[in-house]
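Example 293.
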Amino acid sequence: MAKLGFIGLGIMGHGMAVNLLTAGNPMTVWNRTPEKAVDLVCEIASDPVDLGRVSDIVFVCVSDTPDVEEVVFRDGGAIYGMAEGTVIVDHSTISPAATARFAERAAGSGVTWLDAPVSGGSEGAEKGTLAVMVGGSAAALDRVRPYLEAYSKTITHIGDRPGSGQMAKAVNQVLVVLNELAASEALMLAQGAGLDLGVTLSAVEGGAAGSWMLSNRGPQMIARDWRPGFTIDLQQKDLRLVLEAADELGIPLPGVSLVFQLYRALQAQGLGSEGNHALVKALEGLAGVRLGD
Ligand code: NA7
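Predicted structure in complex with NA7:
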């Protein structure tokens, strides 16, 4: 059984770490804010390099590209403790291009990099039903797969090229936000027409218009429950990555650009910590009408 290390016990990482421990894996964790580790019954490292020294596989789940760079490659980063033949599994959603550079740097130390961003939100991390999109060596994925299964329902090897998992996550985020916009616009129209929102949602969700977003976040929007499964700030970070990648590839994404601006407006109003389904508030502002009024 491999010795596991886990860096980043935020909303996503904490749920994954709990599932790895519940499955009986020996594990060491590190989090910048140590309090988030107190409920976990496992070893706690004093810094990432110490965690790297005692781990065969290091999982990372931190916010953004510079944060991954910090916990892995800056002074005291995990890579400086890791032995040749060990693996880094990066669950953070970060830049595909930076991921390719990180993988090359890690290879210089004999460490294999798998980019493995996830979809499924905090519920998925807790219930162990995440979808994982993996870029990098298939052999390394075979080695870590039994551990990923502790918190995942679907594990897909997207390709050998480092960063291909991150690119698939970008594709995923295009679908997430455009479904979110569709649910928001549909509910606003129903509101304007004076329809019963719950009844209308039930009428349409089972047909061709249905989506995970409509069924799961629609009721929350109707109830004006803005608690985050995924925050606007992190969603916006992902859209920045999507738009950067699309720009480099020369692919126009007009719908994503629109949603990016709507989320920017909500951030400017101080709503960045609300759930991404609060997108409907931007439309409420345009219409001068609130859901439920
Ligand atoms: P959260 O709940 O905001 O958690 C972020 C985690 O990343 C948390 O453990 C942070 O530590 C850690 N973090 C962020 N920046 C740093 C730096 N610079 N150094 C060390 N640790 C850091 O996000 P989620 O769990 O929802 O999402 C994590 C990733 O998965 C993200 O890429 C999503 O898009 C998908 P803290 O507790 O604040 O000290």
